[in-house]
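Retro notes, item 3 of 5
We never archived the inputs for the nicotinamide-adenine-dinucleotide complex last cycle. Fixing that now. Sequence and ligand:
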Amino acid sequence: MPNSFLENTIYNFQKAARALQLDKETYEILKIPRLTAEAAIHIKTKNGKIKTFLGYRVQHNDSRGPFKGGIRFSEQASMDEVKALASLMTWKCAVAGVPFGGAKGGIKVNPEKLTQDELEQLSRDYVRTFFKILGPATDIPAPDMNTDSKIMAWMMDEYSHLAHKNTPASFTGKPMEIGGSQGREEATGQGGVYILKELAKAYNLRPEKVTIAIQGFGNVGYHFAELAYKEGFKIIAASDSKGAIVNKDGFAPEKVIEHKEKTGSVLKFPGAKNITNEKMLTEKVDILVPAAIENVITKENADKIKAKAILELANGPTTPDADKILDKKKITVIPDILANAGGVTVSYFEWVQNLQNYYWDKNIVNKKLEEIIQRSFAEVLQTAKVKKVNLRTAAFILAINKVAKAIHLRNHH
Ligand code: NAD
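Structure as it came back at the time:
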């Protein structure tokens, strides 16, 4: 069995390609990214020293539209990780029917060790370094782990300077004042909540009867928690990189984020018990939501998971070994390329609004997002039924089919 994140994503692709009887040429085109770029990113520290970091951009496939994908700042970032994430973006855009191809970027850095000025220099130098392969019709980055709207503002500004024109459509996930979209900040969580509501319906459960545990309390995890809570769902456990908290009676996510902002962690939240991240994954809950990093649900813990369903808001949280165990246990896994597609969907809306310089209100954004998520979910369910496969393989089949058709129609090689 595969045992790295990149091997896992290739394995999932191969499994679906086989089920689809994908022809060999298309298989080869899609197995290897179209372009991988690695570069040195430089900053000058406040005492005048130059520091160098490794930066990556991977463009997987652009047959359905310009490349699109977030930029991650993380000490664990590597070329293999970015390659895996770039391919997931290709499949995610196809599942959601968003007319983009897949890309991803990263810098190997611990941003907590940088000053604000150094963080800005790092962000700007990333754009200078990869300028030639970026752009609104070429490759449009967005936020991911440890990157946010402030960083997108610096990056878009740097791109606009280099291009000698104001180019808001070069980056998505920007602040609203400079071309961001209503609803983008919480879009990934919101998309997850639309799926959660469908799941509750399928299990015939009222929201207040559904208990949820969320790993990761950053952009995706927090907004998901808050929006689910507002819909009446019961959030009973949450975690961040320092550990997890649990309170069987449930808690208000907004209070937890206030506590995290004050103390630096969700730990020691009043009324909750501290537990480890590992323990939280196997708590008795209805829905488990990994919203942090890859490879957290593995053959070591899959057997102990008690949730009815796993909603993958993180990218690549479940390994193929774990998938097999979860299938056997009849635990439904809503795969990342469907579950977290809300982010790229509203990024697409942002890009459209930037190109038209015409902005939509939040109701329109959320209505269009809900339609796309519901339709994609229904299509994945239908494919799973027809092909007799699990939801991950169904989502991959759906996606590969759409990308393969685009490749054949364009007839470009
Ligand atoms: P973020 O940096 O805002 O938050 C990450 C959270 O995960 C933080 O709370 C951090 O403390 C926690 N974390 C980190 N390491 C952990 C560990 N070992 N155990 C438990 N928690 C840990 O990042 P984000 O934007 O919320 O992204 C989270 C995941 O969602 C990533 O897999 C990302 O690729 C995926 N995703 C993000 C978006 C988006 O729009 N931001 C869209 C789709 C998918």
